[in-house]
Design a protein that fits this description.
Number of strands: 53
Distance between the termini: 39 Å
Structural class: mainly beta
Helix content: under 10%
């Protein structure tokens, strides 16, 4: 929420003294008009270029967050601060990967994600956001991918964070097609700095403890420095059940299909009634924590007892209360006293995280021509989150099942079908133990200095990074063991319950539940046990709550452990200078930079033997994956200052960059950039860039083997979805179902959305593609900077950006493929080849996807920023104002060739309008800071949905605005000792109705924190 666009971004030791304010940095703020003219021409290094140049000649718009802003936020997860920037609003914080919160973000539940924070620039994907530390690459957090876990960057060592929009591939290489986020660390730190902070929500939970110590020493007349930093951070879990509106069925409101306005078989409904409706006491239809049991009903026509696939009793033998079914709601009902409530079902809102972070920075200047620098990092992170229970749909119990006989006796002559949510058998969890190592060693120096010397500078560096992860899915169900355990009968020898498979002569698990595991080809194998031997099985009961033995639970449920690693090596060298010895232009000498880089990436992920065998639910095999690539690159950059200090030409310059790359995987690529600035007078600067950027496919996209995945399916042939398609959809769906052999009556009753079995994720296959090519982005920016001399300390910027990404790498969403199949003029199309349907039900029963160069993205918008520093009077102190805002004009996504472009602007986490205000008052030892984070209303439904169903309740079509207010008070007790405290979201704004885990604000609510810091000079 405290974001300022900076035009001048100073790196490391080149920070200019005129920018150093007691309050947060304002790059354009100037203490006097006299200073401004000279300092605008002073050469500095900024993010997005390797050439030292005057700030006035830098063309790219850059937003910066200073260390003061980070500290004043009271937050110890930097991503939680950066996500308030309009450019990074789609980024994922630690809470984004808690519980089953992946549903809000379109991802998947995985221990690889828990506890991580990942940046997503311009909502075009974290894989297209390049994260740097001091201009150098950082090892990724996820095996096979490019994304960096921002939590591994030490908070109190950050000097500033620079966010640059536009293609920077020509400067930094691949991955930065949407821009770059560069973390600048503090250098030449002298003395001791320590900080302690603790926070807790107004409800007494979501606690956080943070501590850091930074110790630095200059030596040899300040030619050398050693800095050591340690940081500790621990955050508590927060569960849905700790918030009434998420965990209490009576208060948990959900927006679902209106049962009073049902969808007809042709997809129509009564437009005079609302299409949707708010419900409380919502539950999972026909599924209960103690078992929803169908023991059949006698049919006089057949003179036999038959299953109805509707429960008659619960697992304790009481008549079953189904409540009222809600069609098209993902298998939900309401007002049932038997069903499992959906409130609190999805686990945590925030994960438990504990992190130790150690950093070493050192350097020694032998002479101006030779400085040696080294960096070392070690981060140890553990994270844990509770997800949700396993569940059963119509699991069959044989008539001689011991527990069934105990409960129902002769009333269950054909056995029973049980649907159940297995809270009592242990809720699933995700945990991760990660270690990150990073080392940097390098040389730099100045080979010549002064006018007409060429000002040659060089740098050589080598970066090594490694991340390792032990990822655990806790309490995961082994399919063969589970179905063997629930098939419990009397042991004729002991008279006690045992698994049928334990009896002599039994070799096959009951085929009604377990007909084998589908291997990677989708073909079934034998129903014999795969993960155990007969005699090892311990029985389980699905009837009643908490009645199973500990032995049975430990037998059927295990911890699934995956081990992953990533290695990164980068060797680079560059030289920069100017052509002053040869000639100069009226604006000064031409500046240049030349360089070369070699990078090698290697990753490996090894699932458990159980996962590799496909022994878990769904039979999906998860195979070992990994790979490597290297890239050799050469680049050049130039800046041409045409005019300077002339009437109507205070500055006129242009520049460019080009980079040639040769990948071991995709061959050669070329990227380039052209930019320019024009300042008719010192008060105003026009700037612009045009660039071509590329992103090479990552290791996962290239080399991931074809393996099992789970996806929530949305059948386009469901009557509810028919109006959302083209004019061909209804006819094509009828033709498809007819070709399968379904009768007209079955087709009329076809409704996957009302079948509980279709409300869960369904198994399929997906894999990488070694034939992928680079994706390409064309970007341009144009902007203006105003720094009026008549108003010292004030600036305002406005920049338009436009990014078009073609040949984009994407694994087509299977639901999009389903729609494309039936939305064409004929069913003879490639999209229909990617999945199959059951010949008995018509439901989709298999699908296969592959990563392809088929997608496209377009985005454009406007970003504004302003800052003003006002020295009111010595008696009143100083006021600092910062304001930033974003307007998202376009965010269009094309999932695959042949598809329909989808406008995602103003959807959740993609607001059309957003902004931040920050006001600080400094008066002697007292500083009071106020921050506001705001975003406009966002759409709950897509435009396609709104067009197809114009009778959505208008009260709920949009999510409400975000108004989050923060305040902090800081007091310098002494020169070296400061106490501070604050309240985030002090108005306690709550998430909107029916907004998942919390949107547009966090479900944490009002949050208090307090801390103390001490700063000492040289203590050695």
């Amino acid at each position: 929420m405290k974001i300022v666009t900076l035009i001048r971004l100073i790196s490391g030791t080149s920070t200019l003294s005129w920018l150093m304010l007691a309050a947060p940095v304002y790059a354009q703020a100037q203490s006097t008009q006299e200073k401004a003219a000279g300092e605008d021409r002073q050469a500095i290094i900024v993010t997005g270029t390797r050439i030292a140049r005057p700030e006035i000649e830098f063309a790219n718009p850059v937003t910066s967050v200073s260390s003061q802003m980070i500290e004043q936020s009271g937050k110890t997860d930097v991503t939680s601060i950066l996500v308030d920037s309009p450019a990074l609003v789609g980024s994922l914080t630690s809470g984004s990967n808690a519980g089953s919160n992946y549903q809000n973000y379109g991802g998947s539940s995985s221990p690889a994600n828990v506890g991580t924070s990942v940046l997503n620039l311009r909502n075009l994907g974290s894989q297209r956001t390049l994260v740097l530390v001091d201009g150098r690459r950082h090892v990724n957090a996820f095996s096979g991918e490019n994304s960096v876990d921002i939590n591994t960057i030490p908070v109190d060592l950050i000097e500033g964070v620079d966010i640059l929009t536009g293609g920077v591939s020509a400067i930094y290489g691949a991955d930065g097609v949407t821009g770059v986020v560069n973390f600048r660390l503090k250098r030449n730190f002298e003395g001791l700095s320590a900080r302690l902070q603790s926070g807790i929500s107004s409800r007494g939970d979501a606690g956080n403890r943070y501590g850091s110590v930074v110790l630095g020493h200059n030596f040899a007349d300040k030619r050398g420095n050693v800095t050591l930093a340690y940081e500790y951070n621990k955050s508590d879990r927060l569960n849905q059940r700790q918030r009434d509106y998420l965990g209490n069925p009576a208060r948990n409101l959900q927006l679902l299909r209106n049962v009073d306005n049902p969808t007809q078989s042709d997809g129509t409904n009564n437009l005079s009634l609302p299409y949707d409706k708010i419900y409380s006491n919502v539950s999972w239809s026909d599924s209960a924590p103690n078992g929803a049991v169908d023991i059949g009903v006698f049919n006089p026509d057949t003179n036999a007892t038959e299953f109805q696939f509707v429960p008659n009793f619960d697992g304790d033998g009481r008549p079953y209360d189904r409540g009222i079914q809600i069609p098209g709601s993902g298998g939900r009902a309401y007002n049932s006293s038997s069903n499992t409530p959906t409130a609190g079902y999805f686990g945590d809102i925030e994960p438990k995280i504990e992190r130790h972070n150690v950093n070493l920075l050192a350097g020694y200047e032998f002479s101006s021509a030779l400085k040696v620098f080294v960096e070392g990092k070690y981060v140890n992170t553990s994270a844990f989150t509770v997800v949700q229970p396993s569940f059963d749909f119509f699991t069959f119990l044989t008539p001689d099942n011991y527990y069934l006989q105990q409960r129902f006796g002769t009333a269950a002559p054909i056995g029973a079908l049980v649907s159940r949510d297995n809270f009592d058998l242990g809720v699933q969890s995700e945990s991760a133990r990660r270690k990150t190592y990073r080392g940097v060693i390098g040389l730099n120096g100045s080979l010549s200095e002064g006018d007409r010397s060429g000002n040659l500078k060089y740098e050589l560096s080598y970066v090594y990074g490694r991340s390792t992860s032990v990822l655990t899915s806790g309490n995961t169900r082994l399919t063969d063991r589970y179905y063997a355990a629930v098939d419990a009968v009397i042991d004729p020898v002991t008279g006690k319950p045992t698994c049928r498979i334990n009896l002599p002569g039994e070799t096959i698990i009951d085929a009604n539940n377990y007909a084998g595991i589908a291997n990677i080809t989708g073909a079934p194998v034998s129903g014999a046990p795969l993960s155990f031997k007969p005699g090892e099985c311990a029985p389980l009961t699905l009837l009643g709550y908490g009645n199973s033995s500990e032995a049975g639970q430990k037998f059927a449920f295990v911890n699934d452990v995956t081990r992953a690693s990533s290695d990164q090596r980068v060797a680079s060298g560059s030289v920069s200078g100017d052509l002053g010895p040869l000639f100069s232009l009226p604006g000064g000498p031409i500046r240049f930079a030349l360089g070369a880089e070699y990078r090698k990436e290697k990753t490996r992920s090894t699932p458990s033997a159980f996962a590799q065998g496909g022994f878990f639910d769904g039979g999906n095999q998860t195979l070992p994956s990994g790979g490597q690539f290297d890239v050799k690159e050469a680049y050049g950059e130039i800046n041409v200052p045409l005019l300077a200090h002339l009437p109507f030409a205070e500055d006129l310059s242009f520049g460019g960059a080009i980079r040639f790359s040769k990948y071991s995987t995709i061959g050669s690529t070329t990227t380039w950039k052209i930019d320019g600035t024009y300042s008719p007078v010192r008060d105003i600067t026009f700037r612009g860039t045009v660039s071509r950027a590329v992103r090479a496919p990552n290791i996962t996209e290239l080399f991931s083997p074809r393996q099992g995945v789970q996806t929530f399916l949305n059948d386009p042939c469901d009557p509810m979805n028919l109006p959302e398609g083209t004019q061909y959809r209804a006819a094509n769906c009828t033709a498809t179902l007819t070709a399968l052999g379904l009768s007209p009556g079955q087709i009329a009753a076809f409704s996957p959305s009302t079948d509980p079995r279709q409300s869960t994720s369904q198994p399929g296959l997906s894999g990488g593609n070694p034939n992928l090519q680079a994706e390409t982005a064309k970007t341009w920016t144009a902007g203006i900077v105003l720094r009026p001399r008549f108003l010292p300390g004030f600036f305002v910027t406005a920049d338009w950006y436009d990014i078009k990404l073609t040949n984009a790498i994407n694994t087509p969403d299977v639901n999009e493929v389903f729609k494309l199949c039936v939305d064409q003029s004929t069913l003879q199309n490639v999209f229909c080849n990617g999945f199959t349907r059951s010949p008995t039900t018509g439901f989709i029963n298999s699908y296969t996807t592959q990563t392809l160069n088929v997608a496209g993205f377009k985005t454009s918008g406007l970003e504004l920023s302003a800052a003003y520093r006002l020295n009111v009077s010595p008696a009143f102190g100083r006021l600092n104002f910062r304001l930033s805002g974003g307007y998202l004009h376009d965010l269009t996504f094309l999932a695959t060739v042949g598809g329909k472009p989808e406008q995602q602007r103003n959807r959740t986490y993609r607001p059309k309008y957003s902004g931040n205000l920050d006001v600080s008052w400094l008066h002697g030892p007292l500083t009071i800071n106020y921050g506001l984070a705001w975003q406009g209303k966002t759409e709950r439904y897509t435009m396609i949905q709104q067009t197809a169903h114009p009778n959505y309740d208008p009260r709920y079509v949009m999510y409400k605005e975000r108004w989050e207010h923060d305040i902090q008070l800081s007091f310098d007790v002494q020169k070296r000792f400061t106490l501070y405290g604050g309240v985030n979201n002090f108005t306690d704004q709550q998430p909107d109705i029916a907004a998942g885990f919390g949107y547009p604000v966090s479900a944490i609510g009002r949050y208090f924190y307090a801390g103390a810091k001490i700063k000492l000079g040289n203590i050695f």
